[in-house]
Design a protein that fits this description.
3 domains; six-stranded mixed beta sheet; 17 helices; Udp-n-acetylmuramoylalanyl-d-glutamate--2,6- Diaminopimelate Ligase, Chain: A, domain 1; single chain; about 475 residues; six-stranded parallel beta sheet; UDP-N-acetylmuramoyl-L-alanine:D-glutamate ligase; Protein-Tyrosine Phosphatase, Chain A; alpha/beta
């Protein structure tokens, strides 16, 4: 974590401080006064419904040794001689401090964005690099304008690589994050349909994701999914920083990094990774997550690890210790032994189709159940996009489709057309009550069945998985 004196922090932000304790050392950052501190810099963030300055006295009691403070705000007398670093905006100051701190460190930074697979790719990249370097990665989903600076400020002087996830919902947000992080390498996993409401089209989504390249330094690396034409065309209209190298990964054989000998199981995948022109350079690899789309994500992790000199055997060893953030195709068992795949963290049409493709490749089950919740923030086309997901199913992909939520009635309509025999047998159904869905499914679920559960975060589809696990 950051360890700097009050004076040093003020200089890093480009401002002044109030008080006489210029040499006081602070360790780390505090934004939540409910947690016991140990000498941190308190950053009083301000939002529409809260003002961190109101909790300054609690921060002092919790152990903060200095604070950022917006100019012009009243300073409580109870703060005494607490050093206050005076700024115009505490959030902007936090971001400036993180960027300055990153510039002082001998650390290589990898930025990751994309419509789907950011978190999984982050976990895979950290695992591939972690067997060779001291690595810090974004915790959970702290991938926004607050979470990314806080992650950078957690870096130790000894950290060798930082793997940072970058999320967004509109134009300009990735550009802000990449300018703060100054990545040495950047990965774009794909272009999907998430945030269509804000960005208007998939072309707009591609443009927003490509903003990550703006922060790359000289001789930086941009790794992007070569199976996505919109990224190819978007790059034609971009002015990249001097010396940035472009490399592609993906399942298509014309990518520079591609995969072969793919084998899928409910609990994982195996494949060979090949660098174009070098044959099967890494041999057979295994990852503890199923799905062809996750093999594509793994190729991105392999490519960046090899770029930073990690030997192939170390990458394989790193993948063996891979731990994914929860609810990303997380396998478990129902009370009766049926296989459950919990992919309930989030959803959009691209991710839904990838999940259905995953199920279609898993053949050794009596019946494959696909349980889907609403996809949110899709804009005016939401009904059509939901119906398209239902239509994407078919007899070769699943034997039953259950849908939950007001928008998912369209999934059931599309699935009834693509699975007429299942619909006639009552195995394509729409539910307005999640608990009712779980009870109905439990009554019909057999030990040799497979259930995939997916939906947007707001639908909390993991509750279906939990009900099946309890029985």
């Amino acid at each position: 974590m950051i360890k700097r004196t009050v004076e040093q922090i003020a200089n890093m932000i480009g401002t002044v401080y109030r008080g006489e304790h210029s040499g006081r050392l602070v360790r780390g950052i505090m934004t939540d006064t409910r947690q016991e501190g140990s000498g941190e810099l308190f950053v009083p963030l301000v939002g529409d419904r809260f003002d961190g300055h109101d909790f300054a006295e609690q921060a002092a009691r919790s152990g903060a040794k200095a604070m950022l403070w917006e100019r012009g705000r009243h300073v409580p007398e109870t703060l005494g001689d607490m050093p206050l670093i005076l700024v115009k905006d505490t959030l902007a100051a936090l971001q400036a401090l993180a960027s300055s701190y990153r510039s002082e460190l001998m650390v290589r930074v990898i930025g990751i964005t994309g419509s789907n697979g950011k978190t999984t790719t982050k976990d895979m990249t950290a695992a591939a690099l972690g067997s060779h370097y001291r690595v810090l990665k974004t915790e959970g989903n702290l991938n926004n304008h607050i979470g990314l600076p806080l992650t950078l400020l957690k870096l130790d002087e000894e950290t060798e690589v930082a793997v940072l996830e970058m999320g967004m919902s509109g134009f300009g947000e990735i550009e802000l994050l990449t300018r703060i992080a100054q990545p040495d390498a950047a990965i774009i996993t794909n272009v999907g349909d998430a945030h269509m409401l804000q960005l208007g089209s998939r072309e707009g989504i591609a443009k927003a994701k490509l903003e990550i390249a703006v922060g790359l330094g000289e001789d930086g690396l941009l790794l992007y999914n070569g199976d996505e034409p919109l990224l190819h065309s978007g790059l034609q209209n971009m002015h990249l920083p001097e010396g940035v190298a472009l490399r592609t990964f993906g399942l298509g054989r014309d990518n520079e990094w591609s995969a072969g000998d793919i084998h899928l199981e409910p609990g994982g995948s195996s494949f060979t990774a090949s660098l174009h022109g070098e044959g099967s350079s890494l041999g057979n690899l295994s990852i503890a997550v199923p799905g062809r789309h996750n093999i594509s994500n793994a190729l991105a992790a392999i490519a960046v690890a090899r770029h930073f000199g990690v030997p192939g055997e170390r990458i394989k060893a790193g993948f063996q210790s891979l731990k994914l953030t929860g609810m990303r195709i997380e396998p478990s068992r129902a009370a009766n032994g049926a296989v459950l795949l919990n992919d309930a963290y989030n959803a959009n049409p691209t991710a839904m189709r990838a999940a259905i493709d995953l199920v279609s490749g898993l053949q050794d089950f009596r019946r494959r159940w696909i349980v889907l919740g609403d996809m949110l923030e899709l804009g005016p086309q939401e009904a059509e996009l939901h119906r398209g997901i239902g239509a994407y199913t078919g007899p070769d992909k699943a034997e039953a489709v259950l849908a939950f939520g007001p928008l998912s009635v369209h999934i059931a309509e599309g699935a009834a057309e693509s699975l007429p025999e299942a619909a006639a047998a009552g195995l394509v159904r729409h539910f307005t009550d999640k608990a009712e869905l779980a009870v109905w499914l439990l009554e019909r679920l057999q030990p040799d069945d497979l259930v995939l559960v997916k939906g947007s975060r707001g639908m909390r589809m993991e509750e279906v998985v939990e009900a099946l696990e309890r029985g």
